[in-house]
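protien #1 (seq + structre)
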Amino acid sequence: MANRSYLYSADSMPNEAEIPKRIRCISEHNWDIPLAHKLMVGRGTTVVPSMIWNPPIGIAADYADGAALLRGLLRAVGKGLEDDAEFAECVATTTAHLDKQQAKYFVLETGEIVSMTGEDPAASVLRLASEDIPDAVAQAEAAIAGQNDDWLASVRADWQRHFGSFYSEALYFSFPN
């Protein structure tokens, strides 16, 4: 079985007392936290209690702003992939699913990924939220603004790794409504 990052949406953030009442499945990605997941939790990023594991290793963020950032980068990447039907299908599937599963917040579950490093999971998530995610957001914003062509070209060349996640209403960890 692959270790995965899991992305959900919810109308409230998880807290010490409870998990959100309605959790919608967005995406899971094997062996990594992909660029797409980082961008979706890139606006209003905060570390929250996990809905799956005990340590505080979840990350929540603003849904609308994170989805808009991802859509903007997908448009920029797509400007160099106009003839790539597989990329076009990926974008269509991703954006349709985001429209269908929208809520107030994204919630990223990192437990399986951060446990692979051998480091303290909570410290890994703090670094992810304070360094890795803001760096990804800054790179994407610059690329969208036309000021980061080399980075954009590298993302375009390996778009499947960054955007080719599994989007579904049911993930390995799903929550009853």
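ok now protien #2
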Amino acid sequence: MLLDKDIEGWVALCDENAVFEFPFAPERYPKRLEGRTAVAAYLRDYPDPIDLHAFPYVEIHRTGRPDTIVVEMHATGRIMASGAPYEGDYVVVMTAAEGRITRYRDYWNPLGVPASMDAAKSRTSPGGTPRPRPTMRPAPHPDGVS
């Protein structure tokens, strides 16, 4: 759905009370989103920062809990502000219940955010408040994830 820019469909996969967390997010990015409405607002400007073209690598790891998985992904695309190629690695811990995402923890590396994306993010909304921008986050590949 992200590749098709179907944000409405992707947000519909979330539980009404879903919690999204970004533990390593720098100050200018949200660390926590609570509820489907907050997730939809966060993603409203997709794909302004990055036009994703493909996920050539996706590996899903089972955990000791049947409702939780760890996903490693590699994404390719284009940084919209500069036209430069984009490549990012992600590690996400996702929990679901009754077919809906209830918790989404994205361990992305803020050092991987190109300056051109920060420039795009710094645009402001009509009310003058910074818009949360990137939807996909570069993430480190921690040892021991399998």
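The CA atoms of residues 19 and 34 lie 5 Å apart.
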